[in-house]
Design a protein that fits this description.
Chain lengths: ~425, ~160
């Protein structure tokens, strides 16, 4: 097929973007057809953005491996046939299948097979079969100032905000192109000027007790995301030494309700030792005050179900960490999930291996928990019952699952999810919101 | 990033191409992931004001794309299936949609022009009118009336 092989690129695009010798060799096909295709995509994207310079990256995290249809197979197939091989260490985001436990797939047979073929193609290009939306749980995570190309919104916001690594908000198709070429447009959050906060989020009269509850952080994330859109916010007023679990939940919530690729939390995130530093010495364009009642309203918006009937509990969006499993093991030891309730936790296969070593995987399974790896319960056909109510401790899951799966959702804290699962009905602890 | 995400007072060609079709104006940004059925082009986002309209074959006019970065893949899939718009006219550039259009061109040789419009042109476009988008981002607005066909230069 002659598609895209004409003279347009050299005539129109390449002259406007400053290219290295290696870039030109790739465009000329010296590194093979796949490197040429990937380079054309990177250069054409840069041109479409009005960017005239590219940057080197040291790693990539790829989301294109999630199956959406035949075009994904066509694209990956063209790359594999063209001899694609990633130029930098590259991890893979979730699949639409639990590749280690195929029996959990309840969806269409042919689609499952297509998703498996797509997965194999990305592994063939040299991507590590990590199959997780939480690549920051893996060894060798990027360090402060390191330029990378990450896809998956929660991973992007974690890399930029918590690790201080630098990635623009990448997504499908460009992620693998960047991995194959090791090059990205010099734009967005790769550059200092775009990393300073332009909107200030000020916490107003939120009690220290409330700020000591895990479930407040994903809720705050959704409020920050809705207020910020695609801007970089700085949050002033949070306790310092916040755990990674809390910072991660905040970022995931912000990237769900808005297009936030980075946030600062004064005293918590590496580029915000002070408010002034986060703002880059300038005044914010906007100041937004957030109260406890805003958080409660955010909680109410994430709950679409009423009544106490409960079908499922879904945790692990983003993928649960070892620390989160430790909490879950504490809550479930000596207890059992009610027989009417399906209890799922999604995680990465590397975390599952750690759970097996610690004996926690068996403990959780015998308590009635299904451990799902390589995928997530809101993008895959895993749930046994999608007609009833599901509980979750994830703002992201609560946001997307009603549309994706058709379930009704109750958002609550992890311990409420566990108590409800054991009781077989929704039990909410409203005392945390008393006086709000 | 100079231009990306910013509005323009001149038409800016983000992805070049030419196409002619009937305009469909959207009141709000649209996410192709979860918002459009890639088999039919129907808008399925429950919260979108134009839910139930189909984008297939239309010159789609909307403020910007929205939401998930998987939208690149979904636009590509819609282009492959012939259920995509024939052109995207937006107020704000959107790399996610541009990528879907660029990769469709590379993979299938099918192009879908993406043009950022100035505010006056953007707000003057009406659902149902026929527009030809040129390689340079120019718009040739044609009457959709049967009696006054697109190439009727002789007048009435």
């Amino acid at each position: 097929m002659a598609a895209g092989s004409g003279p347009t690129l050299s005539a129109t695009y390449a002259q406007r973007v400053d290219l290295s010798v290696e870039d030109r060799q790739r465009l000329a096909g010296d590194a093979g057809p796949a490197a040429r295709l990937a380079m054309r995509i990177v250069v054409r994207l840069a041109e479409s953005m009005g960017v005239d310079r590219l940057l080197d990256i040291t790693g990539a995290h790829v989301d294109s491996c999630l199956y959406h249809g035949q075009s994904g197979l066509d694209f990956a197939g063209r790359l594999v046939e063209g001899g694609a091989s990633v130029a930098v260490p590259t991890t893979l985001n979730v699949s639409s299948l639990d590749l280690l436990h195929p029996e959990l797939h309840r969806g269409d047979e042919a689609e499952g097979e297509a998703a498996r073929r797509l997965a194999e193609m990305y592994e063939k290009m040299g991507c590590q079969p990590t199959w997780t939306c939480a690549p920051y749980h893996l060894e060798n995570r990027p360090s402060l100032g390191e330029q990378v190309a990450w896809a998956e919104s929660n991973a992007i916001v974690f890399a930029n905000s918590v690790l201080g690594a630098r990635t623009a908000r990448y997504g499908d198709l460009i992620d693998i192109s960047a991995a194959i070429t090791g090059r990205v447009p010099a734009a967005g959050l790769h550059l200092d000027e775009n990393r300073r906060a332009t909107i200030l989020i000020r916490l107003q009269d939120i009690s220290p007790d409330l700020l000591n509850i895990d479930q407040v952080y994903p809720l705050l994330g959704t409020v920050v995301g809705a207020a910020s859109g695609s801007r970089v916010p700085v949050i002033d007023g949070l306790p310092t030494a916040l755990s990674e679990v809390r910072l991660r939940a905040l970022g995931a919530g912000a990237a769900t309700a808005g297009s936030v690729g980075m946030f600062h939390s004064v005293g918590n995130t590496p580029e915000a030792p002070t408010l002034e530093a986060a703002l880059g010495g300038r005044e914010p364009h906007e100041v937004v005050e957030v109260t406890a009642s805003d958080l409660r309203a955010a909680r109410d918006r994430l709950c679409t179900a009423s009544g106490s009937a409960l079908s499922s509990v879904c945790l692990g969006t983003p993928h649960y960490s070892v620390d989160e499993f430790q909490n879950l093991v504490t809550l479930l030891t000596g207890r059992r999930v009610h027989t009417d309730v399906d209890f799922y936790v999604s995680t990465g296969r590397s975390v599952l291996a750690e759970l097996e070593l610690r004996g926690w995987a068996d403990l959780l399974r015998s308590a009635g928990v299904t451990l799902v790896v390589d995928t997530c319960t809101y993008v895959s056909a895993v749930l046994a019952d999608t007609t009833g109510t599901a509980m979750t401790d994830s703002a992201k899951w609560a946001w997307y699952a009603p549309g994706n799966l058709g379930v009704d959702v109750v958002f609550a804290g992890t311990s409420e999810c566990v108590e409800s699962a054991v009781a077989g009905k929704v039990l909410l602890d409203e005392t945390v919101w008393s006086g709000v | 990033m100079r231009r990306c995400g910013q509005v323009s007072e001149h038409p800016v060609v983000v992805v070049a191409g030419s196409a002619t079709g009937e305009v469909l104006c959207l009141d709000e940004p649209l996410s192709f992931w979860g918002g459009v059925d890639p088999r039919t082009g129907e808008i399925v986002d429950r919260h979108h004001p134009q839910r139930g309209c189909t984008v297939a074959g239309r010159v789609l006019v909307m403020p910007s794309g929205r939401g998930s970065s998987s939208s690149s893949s979904l636009l590509l899939e819609a282009i492959r299936n012939g259920s995509a718009p024939v052109a995207l006219l937006v107020r704000r550039a959107d790399e996610i949609l541009s990528l879907g259009a660029i990769v469709a061109d590379e993979l299938y040789g099918r192009s879908l022009p993406v043009v950022v419009l100035d505010s006056a042109t953007y707000s003057s476009l009406m659902t149902g009118e026929t527009v030809a988008v040129g390689e340079d981002g120019s718009l040739n607005r044609q009457s959709d009336s049967v009696d006054d066909g697109p190439d009727n230069t002789t007048g009435g």
